[in-house]
Design brief:
Elements: H1 17-26, E1 28-32, E2 37-39, E3 47-53, E4 56-60, E5 63-68, E6 73-74, H2 76-81, E7 87-90, E8 94-100, H3 101-110, H4 112-115, H5 122-129, H6 131-134, H7 137-142, E9 156-158, H8 163-172, E10 177-182, E11 185-190, H9 191-199, E12 219-221, H10 226-235, E13 240-245, E14 248-254, H11 255-262, H12 269-275, H13 283-298, H14 303-325, H15 328-333, E15 334-338, H16 340-344, E16 355-359, H17 365-382, E17 399-401, H18 402-415, H19 418-428, E18 431-435, H20 437-451, H21 455-462, H22 475-482, E19 490-491, H23 492-511, H24 518-527, H25 533-560, E20 568-569, H26 576-600
Parallel strand pairs: 9-10, 12-13, 16-17
Antiparallel strand pairs: 1-8, 2-7, 3-6, 3-8, 4-5, 4-7, 10-11, 13-14, 15-16, 15-18, 19-20
Helix pairs in contact: 5-25, 5-26, 12-13, 12-14, 13-14, 18-19, 18-20, 21-23, 23-24, 23-25, 23-26, 24-25, 25-26
Length: 606
Amino acid sequence: MPSGFDASNPPFDRLTQQEIGELQASLDIAYVAPGEPVVRPGQKAEHLHVIIKGSVEVREGETLNALLGPGDSFDSRAIVHGSAGEDFVAAGETLCYLVPRALVLDLIARNPAFAAFFYSEVSAKLDAFSGARRQEGMESVLRARVREASRGPALMIEGSASIAEAAQRMQDASINAAYVRDGGRIGVVTGMNLAKAVLLKRLPHETPVRHVSHFDVIAVDADAFIFEALLLMTRHDKRRVAVRQGAEFTGFLEDIHILGLVAGNSQLIPGRIDRARSVEDLTGPAQDIQGQVERLHRQGLKVEQIAEITSDLNRRLFVKLFELVAPPAIREHGCLMIMGSEGRGEQTVRTDQDNGLLLDGPVEEAELARFRDAFGAALAGFGFPPCPGRVMVGNPLWSQPLAGLVRQLRLWIMERTPEAAMNLAIFFDAVPVTGRAGLLAEAKQAMVEAMRGERALIARFANLVESFQTPALGVLSTLMERVGVASDAIDIKKAGIFPIVHGMRALAMDKGILETSTAGRIAALTDQRAFEPEFGRELLSALRVFMEYRLRAQLEAVRRGTLEREALIQPGALSTADRDILRDSLRIVRQFRELLRNRYALASFG
């Protein structure tokens, strides 16, 4: 029996000690000579192979899909489905452990976590192999810093002020607790203290606020851990503690704020947005939206759920900003729209501005110019950088009356250039945020009618999927690893996300489907039999895998301050399981691109 088998390597790390013992007792070892096939397409798999030494090329015809190395296993699909779909050929002298198929199937039946490795849908694999991160949950909340959950501002009121004045100042600041300075001591007064003073004790409104404040302030440092604050709150039977940074008080931490961390503050942010009375008041909630993405991810929420929550909160932010900076004429006659990943509801870490404005007629030019500048500047201040292609309200091309935009759409349709096709694609993802939503519906309907029957135009539009290549994981890795160099990086947005998103856009446009989310388009196209339901599920699974991997890369880029790498992942840095999931996802994209090539004869575009 081989004694060197590494059971800590996925998927075997999901097995119990008893199951590991069964597996080790059944192992055998095989030697494969260079160039010798290990598993051939259509061949029945009697064993799961786990590479001990050497490497194995995974090929599909002449295409090299991957290069597997020590610790990697194959062919999981053949084990479950009975036969292999790819060629597995030894790239050099190779040793493999052999795990009997019967035992693998038995372990799959007994152990759901182990079984996930053999699922055909890649998103199911991703869910299972993200289990360790998801188990952090409350533990990650307790390790958060107090400053991540505490709220300000720290309003300071003189002890001689009346309780009526204190109540007014707290209402103006939209807070329920304030600090009270009385000589050399600092106390706290809450909204409940003030209410009891007036309603129960029937104190006059002119009573100095010092008389209803308490001066046994329990404070915690802003850089302390949440669990330290919880200990203080429990020990002193408090629902809130004061927060200080050095000698200065910065706000309060309440039990509801800690609860907010568990849900990423998503239930607290809308209230802060609604209470904003100025653009400056929106800065805090805007930062919270961005901060919650990492918290939700750390707590194991699925990427599509993070995107849904984030998109909803961003839209609330845009609505409030529009209300604050748009003059009455624009609020009455305009429709604010968002595009890109925001429009599709697939935004996670904040990227650039993708927005526009439709009007039901001309408005005063100076007023419109002031709004364009103010709206874009405010978003930039919140951390939304200007769009490199200037797809934003500040560009008159994207903020104009309905009639003008419809004319522009028809011009893009007639131009038949890649740039015009990209502009049509961007607009096709637009959704209304606030204002006269019917304007956008009219514009989209005009666009669909203008493109109806334009098969050549749809084909040119679909050809944008050829803008970037979808690599076979291992083409670059093979060369790099053979000379001892780490695997190259893959741009996950270009290689995986864009082909699926844009391919679905093209098919939806062809069928006149006005659904904006990629998941919604896949569902609608499946209903219209544009492809088989199983392939639709695989495409959605692959998209979610790419979104998850990109989110990881984005969060790492934010932490390191290397935003130019926000879509780059290095296969060599991934776990065996993650590489397997990525390989499957890229295979699905290549199949989808082939479907588009055949349907629209994309080869004719050269």
